[in-house]
């Protein structure tokens, strides 16, 4: 079996577990007043699991295959790809998740966006920093003020 099908099989099992959690375990803990609303906290995970299962099955069954094999990943030549960038981005995502509470949303998100764009090849600091800071502030404002979900904007030791 090709590498893309193995990855699709792994993603299918993850999406099945995620879907089971969204459909059966998340809804059982809802308060009675939440059960009458049209959109529940599990609505988006349910949609994601359905799309993930569908796309994984499409890859497993070979619906996405074209006539030519150009652009396929050759697992015997993984070192020819930009594997270092991918590993650095994954490490940066883990660091972002770990620093989110202690550093605060604005600092960790801005740093993640700047370092992520640097890893991917952008070198214009005068563009990266303002765009990353603006994006972090806009997302924080939308989540905090519009959706009403508390996000600690600053580090925990600043008391906010």
UniProtKB/TrEMBL annotation:
Source species, domain of life: Bacteria
Keyword Membrane: yes
Keywords on record: Membrane, Transmembrane, Transmembrane helix
Keyword Membrane: yes
Pfam families: TctB
UniProt protein name: Putative TTT family transporter small permease component TctB
Residues annotated as transmembrane: 6-26, 47-63, 83-115, 127-151
Coiled coil: none
Annotated ranges, domain DUF1468: 6-151
Signal peptide: none
């Amino acid at each position: 079996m090709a590498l893309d099908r193995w990855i699709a099989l792994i993603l299918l099992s993850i999406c099945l577990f995620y879907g089971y959690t969204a459909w059966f375990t998340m809804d059982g803990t809802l308060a009675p007043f939440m059960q009458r609303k049209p959109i529940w906290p599990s609505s988006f995970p349910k949609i994601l699991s359905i799309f993930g299962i569908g796309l994984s099955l499409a890859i497993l069954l070979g619906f996405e295959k074209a006539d030519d094999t150009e652009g396929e990943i050759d697992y015997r030549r993984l070192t020819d790809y930009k594997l270092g960038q991918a590993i650095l981005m994954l490490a940066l995502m883990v660091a972002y998740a770990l620093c989110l509470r202690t550093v605060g949303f604005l600092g960790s998100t801005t740093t993640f966006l700047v370092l992520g764009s640097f890893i991917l090849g952008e070198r214009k600091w005068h563009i990266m920093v303002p765009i990353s800071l603006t994006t972090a502030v806009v997302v924080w404002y939308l989540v905090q003020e519009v959706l009403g979900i508390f996000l600690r904007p600053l580090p925990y030791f600043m008391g906010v």
